[in-house]
Specification:
113 residues, alpha/beta, three-stranded mixed sheet, 10 strands
Length: 113
């Protein structure tokens, strides 16, 4: 397990605030897990889950008390990314700015490399 705030993956203050608010309402969950799955309209998709434990291969990204876990395989796709939480007229959601993505779908939840 390694802990970092940069340069691998970063959290914005808005994302940290939202993660803390969500986890405060979750029974037992201490972490937000971000991973990359095959599939989605652009090839890969981001997945957000709650977790109670840190795995040996997890990267722990921390800001303002919020902790995000990223497994080693997903980190290959997320290296250099920024996780943000955005509130817009069409809704509020976590958004990932990924410098590795060559294309993304309109909904922002899938990408290709």
């Amino acid at each position: 397990m390694s802990t970092t705030t940069a340069p691998d993956v970063t959290l914005t203050a808005s994302a940290a605030k939202r993660i803390n608010a969500i986890l405060a309402k979750q029974d037992g969950a201490q972490f937000l897990r971000v991973s990359v799955d095959g599939g989605g309209c652009s090839g890969f998709s981001y997945k957000f889950d709650f977790d109670t434990a840190i795995n040996d291969d997890d990267l722990v990204v921390e800001r303002d008390g919020a902790k995000v876990l990223i497994d080693e395989m997903s980190l290959e796709f997320l290296a250099g990314s920024e996780i943000d939480f955005s509130t817009e007229l069409i809704g509020a959601a976590f958004k990932i700015s990924n410098p590795n993505a060559t294309a993304a779908c309109g909904c922002g939840t899938s990408f290709s490399i």
